[in-house]
Amino acid sequence: MTKTNASAPIISVNKVRRVFRSTQKGEGMKETLGLLLKPKTTEHVALKEVSFTIEPGSFVGLIGANGAGKTTLLKILSGLIPPSSGEATVLGYKPFDRTMPFRHAISLVMGQKAQLWWDLPATDAFDLLKAIYEIPEAKYRERLNTLAELLDVKRLLQTQIRRLSLGERMKMELIGALLHWPKVVFLDEPTIGLDVLAAEKLRDFLKVFNQKEKATIILTSHNMDDIERLCSRVMILKTGEMIFDGSPSKLLREGECRLRVRLKETLTSDAVADIAGVKKEDVTVGESDAGGEEDEGGEGAIPTFYVETNKDAVIRVLQAIMAKATILDMGIEEQSLESVISRIYSEGGVSGGAGLHA
C-alpha cells in the first residue's frame, strides 16, 4: 500500500468490472435435486470496465437509472465488495483490504439503511462511535457540537433515534458518519424520502462540509436538485457503462429551453411532437402531472407536456400548437438536468459534442 501525495488523485478506478452470479432453479423436486448435481448459473454484469480518477476536495454526482451500477460502484470503493477484475484505489489503499487506516479515512452513508442503533439516544450511539474510532475526547466534543449545530439537531441529541422523524434520523446518520472527520465520503441517496425543507438543509450542510473541510464527496441521487446544487462534476452510468463524465453544464444544449404546456384536448406526447414540429424524444409528460389535475368537466387528468426547443423557436412552436389545440396553461423554463439525463438515456449517449470526458 502506498499513500497518495497531495497532488495525486484521491480515487483511482481502472477498468473495474463487477459480475454477480446467481443459481437458477426451476419448479419441482427434480429441479431441486438437479441443483446438487449440475447447478445452472446466470451472470449479471453490474459494471463494465469503468475507469476514472477523482481529485481531492471534489464533489461528484454519480447518477443513472435503477440497476445502472451506482450502488455497486460505491460498495467497491468503500470496501464492502471486491471488483471482479480491474483495480480501484482510494487514498492509495485497495478498499477491499479494509485496513484500519483506510476505514478511519472514509465513510459510507446509505439513505435506505440505518447504521446507528435505533434503541439508543443519539448521544449514546455517538459515544460508541467515539470509542470505535478512538476519537480523543476534546476533538469528539468539538466535532459533535459543530455538526449538531450545523444540522440544527442539538435539542434532539438525548432523544431515542427510533422516535425521530425520517429527516432527523438522516441528520443523525450523517453526524455518525462524519464524527471521525473522514477524507472521503460516499453518499447513496441521502435525501431519499425527505421533505423539501429537510432535503434543503441537508444539501446546505453537505456543501459547507465539502468547502470547509475539503472532504471528497461522491453522491448518488435520483433527485436532480441534489446534483444541480452540489456537484461540480457529474458521472452518468447506464447499464454498468460510464456514458458521461464532466461538468453538468456540458450536458446542457446551448440556447435551449423547455416549454411547459397543458392542453384542453387529450393528446399523446407523440401527437404533441408532430403538432409542434419537434422530435418525439423532445416531448415528455411531467411525472408529477401525469396522474394529475382533472379538467373542469371532471373528464379525467390533464397532463403537462414539456417541449425541449431552442429559445428562438419558442414562438413558432407555440403558434403551431395553438393552431391545433387549446392551451390552458403554459410557461417557459430553463433546461432541467433531469430532462437532459432522460434525453441522454433515450438517445443512448451524449450528443452535441459533449463526450465521455467532457
Q: What is the CATH first-level class name of the largest domain?
A: Alpha Beta
- Which structural class is indicated by helix and strand composition? alpha/beta
Tally of DSSP β-strands: 13
Discrete helix count: 11
* Average pLDDT figure: 84
What are the segments in which pLDDT stays under 50 over at least 5 consecutive residues?
287-299, 351-355
Distance between the termini: 32 Å
Which CATH architecture of the largest domain? Answer: 3-Layer(aba) Sandwich
**Total domain units:** 2
The CATH homologous superfamily name of the largest domain equals: P-loop containing nucleotide triphosphate hydrolases
The CATH topology of the largest domain turns out to be Rossmann fold
* Rg over alpha carbons: 24 Å
Strand order of the largest sheet: 5-6-7-3-8-9
Largest sheet: 6 strands, mixed
Output the helix-strand order.
EHEEHEHEHHHEHEHEEEHEEHEH
The geometry reads as globular
Percent in helix: 25-40%
What proportion of the residues form beta strands (DSSP E)?
A: 25-35%
